[in-house]
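Our preliminary data section would be incomplete without showing what the modeling component actually yields. Below, a chain of 168 amino acids is followed by its predicted structure, encoded as C-alpha cells that our downstream tools consume directly.
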Amino acid sequence: MDLLMPESGLLFWMTIVFIIVFLVLLKWGFPSIIKMVNDRKAFIDDSLRKAHEANEKLANIQKKGESILQEAREKQAAILKEAAETRDAIVENAQDKAREEGARIVNEAKIQIETEKQNAIRDIRSQVAELSILVAEKVLKQNLSTDAKQMELIDRLLDEVSSDNKKI
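Predicted structure:
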C-alpha cells in the first residue's frame, strides 16, 4: 500500500526530482526536440516543394517532348511531300525526255525513209535508163529499113513503156 499512498518525504523528493528533470528537459531537451521536429518539418516541406517542382518540370518536359514530336512529324510530312514533288518532277522530266527521244527517232526514221525513197527513185531511173538503152539497142539491131517499120516499132515500145509506168 505504500505505493498507493506514498509518504510525504518521498512525495517531496519525487516532486523535486520531477521539477529538476522537467527544468533540464525544458532547458535542453524540449528545444532540441522542437528543433529536430522543425528541421524534420522543414525537410518534409522542402521535399514536397522539390517533388512539386519536379512534377512541374516533368510536365514541361512532356509538353516539350510532345511539341518536338509534333514538329518532327510536321518535318517528316514536309520531307515526304518534297520527296513526292521531286519524284513527280523526275518522272515528268523522264517522260519529257522519252517524248523528245521518240520524236527524234520518228524524225530520223522519216529522214531514213525519205533517203531510201530517193535511192529507190534513183534506182528506178537507172533501170529506166538501162531499159531505154536496151530498147535503143534492140531498135538498132533490127532491120529498120523502112520508115513505117521504124514508126511501128517506136509506137509499140512507147505503149509498153507507158503501160509499165502505169503499173508503177
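The chain has two helices and no strands. The radius of gyration is 64 Å. Preliminary results of this kind motivate Aim 1 of the renewal.
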